[in-house]
Amino acid sequence: MDGERRWADKGEAIGHGVSWLSRWSLRVALAALGFWMVFWLIGTLWVVVLPVLLGLLITTVLWPPARWMMSKGMNAALAATIVLLVGLGVLGGVIAAISTSIASGVPEIAQSAQKAITQLQDWASGPPFNLKGSDLDRLIAQGVDQVKSSIGSIANGLLTGAGAVTSGLVTGVVALLLAFFFVKDGTRFTPWLRGVVGERAGGHLTTVLERIWATLGSFIRSQAAVSLIDAVFIGLGLLILGVPLAIPLAALTFLGGFIPIIGAFIAGALAVLVALVSNGLTTAIIMLVIVVVVQQVEGNVLQPILQSRGLRLHAAVVLLVVTAGTSLYGIAGAFFSVPVAAAVAVVLRYLGEVIEARSVRSTSQPDGDDPVETERSPE
Prior knowledge:
Blueprint: H1 10-44, H2 46-71, H3 76-125, H4 133-149, H5 151-185, H6 189-197, H7 199-241, H8 246-256, H9 262-279, H10 281-311, H11 315-364
């Protein structure tokens, strides 16, 4: 048939197929090498990359009110300063309220803990253990001796943890400073970028960056919605069961929702521990069931659905990228994997639009005209 290539024999056809496969295999290998180099560079410069990523996420929260202030004629630096200070004030107020509530509930929890210890001693002295007071004292002494013998490793662990906390504080301060500059000078970035790379390439980059920015905002909103739902249901469970510190624990659950895996685990463990100490084993088991059910629904159903809709990613893709990010970069990788994957998807979709637009223009372009020279960013 016309338009089909005819081969002299099967050997020529097989040779053409092998040649085609070799060329594409080399291209895939080079692309994989490029991706590996990018991951290696990110890992090497992680101390710089992490504050930048955190600063961008903070900016997505601060930018809407700052943009409104700028639209009313306020100076950009003043607007950035106000939203940053207000944001820090709100966060500090929430932490102060949680701390005050916890401090007021400590005596009640301490009394409940003493009662729980007494009940535990009574239970251990009966069947099937039948432990006497001297036996319990001996077990406690053995535990103390074990702690003393491990004091060196414990001290090293505390020093390592203190170093991690210090590094985290420095990263947070740098991220806040970067967020201030991003809010203050963000409107100047795209004009500067157009001037550096040229109008045509700058148009493409501007469109892509604007779409990525919208994607980051969608990620923050969906993450906040998931964390709020977690906090509401776990808080209701605490209130219904009559567990003290229900409101502070719900607030900690909301804040912990922004830290994947470990945040939800710590918040849930604290809720179960307080229920155990203050209300007994039965209440703690019920609270554990509530926490597990809520977190399973949130992690396996709610979060993938909300993020897949807001970020235009399939729920299966969200689950896979979170798994990959966790295995590569730990907790930070789990947190940033979804917005990074969404940003990559934005770039790929835009490239598809450009290729499609170029194909349409090239078929309708008169002979002698270069479709590349007449290309513009698709609307």
